[in-house]
Amino acid sequence: TWSLHSLALIVDSSGPMYRGYVEPTLSLVLTLLLTVPPSHTEVHQCLGRCLGAIITTVGPELQGNGATISTIRSSCLVGCAITQDHSDSLVQAAAISCLQQLHMFAPRHVNLSSLVPSLCVHLCSSHLLLRRAAVACLRQLAQREAAEVCEYAMSLAKNAGDKENSGINMNPFAPGAGSRRDAHSRHQGVNITETGLEGVLFGMLDRETDRKLCSDIHDTLGHMLSSLAVENLSHWLMLCKDVLAASSDMSATAPLGGGKDEESEKKDEMDDDTMFTTLGEEDKSKPSVAPRWATRVFAADCLCRVIMLCENANKAHFDLALARSARLKNPKNDFLVLHLSDLIRMAFMAATDHSNQLRMAGLQALEDIIKKFASVPEPEFPGHVILEQYQANVGAALRPAFSQDTPSDITAKACQVCSAWIGSGVVSDLNDLRRVHNLLVSSLDKVQAGKGSSSQLYRESATTMEKLAVLKAWAEVYVVAMKIKKEAETKPKRGLKSTEEDEDDFGTIDELPPDSLITLVQPELPALSRLWLAALKDYALLTLPAEFATQLPPDGGAFYTPETIDTARLHYRNSWAPILHAVALWLNSTGFNTSESTEETAAAIPNSQKRATSIMLNQTPGSPPTTKSLLEINKDRMHLILGVSIQFLCSPRPEEPVEHVTSCLQALHTLLDSPCARIHIAEDQLLGVELLSVLHRLLLTWDPPSVQLLVTGVVQQIVRAAQDYLQEKRNTLNEDDIEEKENPLALGEGGESGGLVPGKSLVFAAMELLMFILVRHMPHLSSKVSDSPSHIATKSHLSEESARLVAATVTILSDLPSLCSPAGCMTILPTILFLITRVLKETAVKSADNQVPPPVSAALQGIKTIVTLPTVKTDETQKQWTGLIRSTLASILEYSQPEASKPILDEISILTAIALFLWSASTEIIGVQSLQNGCMNRFKSALNSCDPWVQAKCYQLLLSVFQHTNRALSTPYIHSLAPIMVEKLKAVERSRPNNNLELLAVQEGIKVLETLVALGEEQNRVQLLALLVPTLISYLLNENAFASASTASKDLHEFALQNLMHIGPLYPHAFKTVMGAAPELKTRLETAVRASQASKAKAAARQPPPTVHSTPTIKLKTSFF
């Protein structure tokens, strides 16, 4: 025995080095297994350990198909079969462990059809080690082949047939499930009922006390749940429901199974056997044992996991209409939304249980249900959601959690559910909303007045957790209320209903007005704002590094004591983000105009929290009160919010929820909406630079597009704050310093030299951040990234979120030159113009629906903003500015050259960019023949395009160019392009428009010709009309052709006739001259006019005469109708 034990240790410790001795050792082990009598159990136990060590040594080689490996694998399987057939439980456990290792290295060669049933039999063994080995093996099998494991387990029940006496009823919810049998009956089999192996494991979980075994059961059920729950929803939900419902149905027997103390649970197996022998095997008249609270908590956790798994599966799980239609097509389809009533019932049962742990799990399940189903519409009642019918259930589940004797952690969790319920928008009845709102009001009263005897029942950290949870819940409700209020203000107001409609519409009496939620929160805001600020101040102090520990107040903060400072940090860490967002919203709405005196604060906050007042006002406790001005108070608040935000954004932990990051960024964005905060951050430029650097650092570690969008929003707020501040300074300088003749345009970053200092320049920090975002979504913009070996040179289409990000980035880039002096602009403009033109090149791709992507719109707007910038055109920078404009236009013309390898370019976007340069930068472009020829060629190709939409837009852009006040610019384009236009418009007579787009192109072309006539001099008017009038008359149809023409052709006829009727009186002499020179044109026009007048007369004759209502001669004072 000792020799075999030593051999097993040598094999195990040697690892791969023992590979050369595997064959003789394996032969020795098999020989001893066959020759040593089974009565020598210790020898067989050591042989099992040796076999397991050999399998580990060979390892993945067992998958091979060579002769030697096949022999070793067969020998290992034979050895496992021999040890598996031994009567000793330890030997059997070793065999199961060997088979488990074999399945790990060579899963195809392990026969699950025989292994799984044997494992199921061992689940009811009286030996703990054997049960451990069986469950551990099942855990590994379920991780890879959960469906096969459950199928083979059910086959054991099918093979048992009607032999009820040969097995043990292992249904965990049947009468007597809690009892254990003798060892002899355990080895005969296991009767797996319709609940399957999962039901057996739930039953074991309810009986076992060994931690390792329970952990393996949890993992096994978890793997089965992840693999099978979505396809078999009803089965798993029924399992969870049976476990959770058992506590309410079996309350009479609860003391037997659930009232044991910890010492009785740790008794050995035989004591448990004798305890439960009184329950007969088939005596159904005796009560069953209720599941223990740990089992029910696990069932509630499984419910939450099912919801999460369905969220990542088919979207029909959260769409009732979609689920019903899919169910009609295939009745076997099962969706979570169809089981909503069961979900609510299970969460309600758990949340109202007597076990505190189960109440926590139930409240968590209820919160998940609210968040996932809040927006699911009710198909039968448009405008309503399916959760509305469960308002009473939710309220009843939450109400017990706010009683006086409820533990703090449950009240804290209930506050979180309350905020989720109120903020979900499910509640449409004001009275129902008040019921849940009153629960939060009562909790707020406890925060202000203390919780009675709670301090004697629970330690101070529990009170901290509850108070912060209440403040967090109120903060979340306030954020949602402000969001609803903002949406209601932006929407157009509905018209007032008449009295009769109001009387008939009974359903709108209790409907929730758009601002009702904010009206419920408004009365509590004075107290809430002070408590929120105190909590933020506490959090700011608690996050100080260790070297600043001396700055912590000796008496603690508003909601923590020095003794519980370490545990309090965790509670503050979970609550600070919504509170920060709420404080920012409050300050932006009214807070910056509100000062708080020490007396008001002391009146609002009770004695137990008066130390928060001194902390919040930067006073030491016991010192006389000091009066601060409103400006100083606002500055302190600003520093508090910015300090908390920057500290968090500097180094957010990887495990930090993304909601905290988004709440912090939304708080900064909201704060910078207020003029007070804008002035503060603009005056202290280093603060803005630091904030931009922190945001840049955040982008390096956080990839979600939602975070990046929020970051660009904050950057835009910072840039606009600097713009407003600089513009105010320039305006002041224009008014006050005219005598000194100081140029206000010289203000801004860069000064006279144009240098931007990294670390001190706001523009440089912003460009660094924005360039990072652009390269992240468009890597080919950077040669370093695109030339690196790791970069894949495939140009993928930008997603919707990436397009929005690129557009926002380009918009901010175009605003940066306004922050610089003329010399500073010359420093950054080459980079900015290069980026904008490259974005235009990469994103201006033709689409089927002719929609302009957001990056293209932003690039065009950016070009317009920069080209029309007034601060750059000075004597010192004029030459450099002209060169920049010309090179930028040349780049756009170069990018617009068609290439076979590039997608089809959007001509309209390129033409719009060209027109922006022609219209806004004419002085810089006039006289450059190469640019002029390039622009004309682009317009010519657009005029000759086969796409009528391109033609129409080209005409519109040419109209703006022809109307330019600088004749030196417009005249060459008129001479070059007008003849082509006339030819195109004359050709319409032969190929009339067939649709509205083609009609639109012709109409826009005629408008350009009419503009040219108006722009022409009087002596040239006859020649110009000689081009326009015959063209219009050629569009007129005779009476026979008009009747059979298409709609677009008829519209063109009417359009031409209306224009001719307008041109005649406008230019009477020239019009008569043209008409007199061509009598056939006059005849055709007169015929068309007569036909039009005749058709109008017929239409007027068909209309019935208007009915005249005679008014009564005597008018009654009261209307009876």
From TrEMBL:
Q: Which InterPro entries match?
A: ARM-like (IPR011989), ARM-type_fold (IPR016024), Laa1/Sip1/HEATR5 (IPR040108), Laa1/Sip1/HEATR5-like_HEAT (IPR046837)
Annotated region Disordered: the residues are 251-270, 733-752
Q: What GO CC terms are in its UniProt record?
A: cytosol; endocytic vesicle; Golgi apparatus; membrane
Q: Basic and acidic residues composition bias: which ranges?
A: 259-269
Similarity annotation: Belongs to the HEATR5 family.
Q: Which PANTHER family match?
A: HEAT REPEAT-CONTAINING PROTEIN 5B, HYPOTHETICAL HEAT DOMAIN-CONTAINING
Q: By what name is this protein known?
A: HTR5B protein
